[in-house]
Amino acid sequence: MNTSVIGYPRIGKDRELKFASEKFFKGEISEAELLEVARTIRKEDLLAQSKAGITYISSNDFSFYDNVLDTAFLFNVIPQRYKDLGLTELETYFALARGYQGDKGNVKALAMKKWFNTNYHYLVPEIDDDTVVALTGTKPVDEYVEAKQLGIDTKVALVGPFTFLKLAKFTGSKKIADVSPALSAEYVKLVEQLTSKGAHIIEFDEPYLVRDLDSADIELFKEIYSSVLANKNGAKVFLQTYFGDIRDIYAEVIKQDFDAIGLDFIEGRKTLELVKTGFPSDKLLIAGLVNGKNIWRNDYSKTLSVLDEIGTYNVVLGTSCSLLHVPYTLANESKLSEDYKKHFAFAEEKLTELAEIASIAGTDYASSEVFKDNQELFEGRKDSRDEEVQAKVAGIKEEDYVRLPAFEEREKIQKEILNLPLFPTTTIGSFPQTQEVRKNRQEFKKGLKSKEEYVEFNKQKIAECIKLQEEIGLDVLVHGEFERNDMVEYFGENLNGYVFTEKAWVQSYGTRNVKPPIIWGDVSRKAPITVEWSKFAKSCTDKPVKGMLTGPVTILNWSFPREDISIKESILQIALAIRDEVLDLEANGIGIIQIDEAALREKLPLRKSDWYSEYLDFAIPAFRLVHSKVKPETQIHTHMCYSEFTDIIPAIDAMDADVITFEASRSDLQILDSLKANNFKTEVGPGVYDIHSPRVPSVEEIVTALTKMRAKIEDHKLWVNPDCGLKTRGNEETVKSLTNLVAAAKQIRG
Length: 750
Ligand code: GLN
Ligand code: ZN
Known about the structure:
Elements: E1 3-4, H1 16-25, H2 31-51, E2 58-59, H3 67-74, H4 80-83, H5 89-98, E3 100-102, E4 105-107, E5 112-114, E6 121-123, E7 126-127, H6 139-149, E8 155-159, H7 161-167, E9 169-170, H8 176-196, E10 201-205, H9 215-229, E11 236-240, H10 250-253, E12 260-264, H11 271-276, E13 284-290, H12 300-309, E14 314-319, H13 338-341, H14 347-360, H15 369-376, H16 387-394, H17 407-418, H18 435-445, H19 451-472, H20 489-493, E15 495-499, E16 506-509, E17 512-514, E18 518-525, H21 531-539, E19 546-550, H22 552-557, H23 567-587, E20 592-596, H24 611-627, E21 635-640, H25 649-653, E22 659-662, H26 671-677, E23 683-686, H27 699-712, H28 731-749
Parallel strand pairs: 1-14, 2-8, 7-9, 8-10, 10-11, 11-12, 12-13, 13-14, 19-20, 20-21, 21-22, 22-23
Antiparallel strand pairs: 3-4, 5-6, 15-18, 16-17
């Protein structure tokens, strides 16, 4: 059986791309040096796949920042304000990604959003009335040729035109239909260029097909592909989908002249059912059966039985989505014992799985060594269950999900006790993680620093941070999160049931990578986690200090979850653990507690019909379970980032927090209308500036944002804050930005 991989990690096994890019941004290395690092990464990635014997390997899956941005760039979907900067091509690309502030001008980055139901983010292409779609780039061609020179004849993976258009933002009067013919024509040109260089497989990635589609969407898809498929130029055209099933368009898609159709059998609940209704004999069926998102070993018996069921078709074994969402290799993990490792498969090990399964598919595999070895892994992980935890979860009662008294009453009590000014200012929690802050943690971890020295250093940082916030004039202070590497890993490290990796990095956005911990077994809290830090911070000031926790939904969503129990059960276990922490903070005099749910929307099913039944119906109560037992005067904050929540506003209100801060600046404050329309009761701090770029917002800019907010949000409910934590920012820009933020709040109060 042949095998196919949709895409491979591209950050480099040791995050080489991140480090090189960051040096390039600082002017420490040249463009040529950065390009060389990228070339080496691409080469290693291709060779790993070719060595594993993968039949269909992608090129053009590499990106300096994001593949959707690459596509925008390729087709000249570059707003004039970026072109006007007069930068080099690569610099312009990064200006779209990160914004630009320098001697050539001052522009914000494009909006950034979560990529479907993952923690990867794409940049939202902007199409305005001046956009002239034109194939001006050469990346797919260059990378195809480059791979070929290595002796690897790749399939060229492209973000498909349908998905591209559906994800783009139309800022002028143009609509999708005004652009789609031109875009299709440019894709056709690209196919021509690729085939002229010898490419004979072009893969169109169309993950948008797994969403709810209406008849207009289906028409649009047909229209776009009728022109693409009429101009194949001798190439084979693969349609690749992932992150779900394509139930709304399956019947249409199989009628089209695609040479292969890639379907997700892991997240696509209906995929098998659809395929069984029939699949054309003249096409390849790329069956995505090796999970591209999670790190557990593939259960060969399950996979092979699906392959048996679809054995009459021309099946190619594939990954369920790009391997971009898993780390590179277990070979990087020197500390993790074999007892754990044998249960995991990262990208490189998934290549082996693909090859192994393909080698025994269609044979009498049950007696093969490969199969038997694999099955041994699934005979039960004995150390993963904890009866006490299970009893606690079973003992949760309905009233544990309800906080009393009701919001309105709490709001009054809290206003009186906290006595904050109108438009209170605050931050989201973390302060810049400078070199010395990271060094302190690393030295402690490596045993080069004693616990006392480590704690002393952090206390000093906390004291400085509190002083700084007092000087800036913020109203609700934070301790700065200097003890945290990552908002999820930190909690994971302090919970039972977690396993950690050393180098299992996964790209989150651009040069930001995350290292999700692995939920191995039942979760419980070992001991208080944040209490000492918060207590110390509070002792440094008379102003209120916010305790800072990560919520259960985010902890789960940013970990690699178990596959042997349900997500719901895992979330409840974590919720009970974090609840202990909330109550301990309260008992220690912390009157404001923020429970971050940055990733709440991430696992929201891609189809609306599944939103509540498959997710929100347990995720939202799990959040309430965490804070339902606090006193009325304890103010519960939550924070969310990077998502469109316009459509789940009622669910967010139902979290029943007292205050919510969220990302808004990068999406043009669109959310305000729906807050108003839904009579949102929770107090809100829609971020007044974007912290994901090094740009310092001016006072006027923040005043403008606040003025817009005041039109939609009652004054007594409006908070003033950046849109996310400040840990990725530098000290200098942070002080300037926050100073402007406070000045803006004061101006508005005046
Ligand atoms: N409290 C966290 C911080 O400030 C929140 C981070 C996030 O939302 N991603 O870093
Ligand atoms: Zn955030």
